Every structure is written in C-alpha cells, then in structure tokens.
Amino acid sequence: MIVLYILVALIGGVIGFGVGIILAAAGRFDDADAMAITMDAHRDRAEMLNELSREMNQ
Fold first, then answer.
1. Alpha-carbon dihedral sign for residues 23, 24, 27, 31
2. pTM over 0.85
3. For the chain, N or C: smaller number of CB within 10 Å?
4. What is the structure's pLDDT at 51?
5. Residue 21 to residues 2, 3, 13, 14, 56: CA-CA distances in angstroms?
6. CA 21 – CA 24 distance, rounded (Å)
7. What are the pLDDT digits (tens) for 2-57?
8. What pLDDT score does 50 carry?
9. Please, are residues 6 and 34 in contact by the beta-carbon 8 Å criterion?
10. Which positions ≥6 away from 3 have C-beta within 8 Å?
11. To 5 degrees, how large is the angle CA 24–CA 6–CA 52?
C-alpha cells in the first residue's frame, strides 16, 4: 500500500510537470499558467507524501 502511494505521487508529479511544459510549448497558455499547472502537480504530490508519512508514523 505504501509503495502504491509513492508510485501514484511520483507519476502524478511527472504527468503534471509534463502537461505544464507541453502547454507552454504549444503556446496555448502563457508561462504563468503553465507554471501554475506544474506547481499544482507538485503540491498534490507533496500532500500525498505527507499523508503517507502520517500513516507510517501511526
């Protein structure tokens, strides 16, 4: 279960980062929008890892 959380967090971060880069490259969003999408993905990953660490500490 712990491994699953880590995999989901890592995959989510990579996908979010990739989406931000692709949208910026396509010119559909300006840099600020692409960065916001990327930072959302990193925040989601951080929240997942925090939840994982809480479970491990119990």
1. positive
2. no
3. C
4. 86
5. 29, 27, 12, 11, 33
6. 5
7. 777 777 777 777 777 777 677 666 666 566 666 777 777 778 778 888 888 888 88
8. 86
9. no
10. none
11. 115
- Whether 20 and 43 have beta carbons less than 8 Å apart is answered as no
Amino acid at 28: R
Distance CA 34, CA 26 (A): 11
Domain boundaries, the chain: 2-57
Cα–Cα dist 36/20, whole Å: 8
Distance CA 46, CA 54 (A): 12
Q: Indicate the DSSP class of residue 49.
A: H
pLDDT for 23 equals: 67
Q: Which residue has the tokens 């500490």?
A: 57
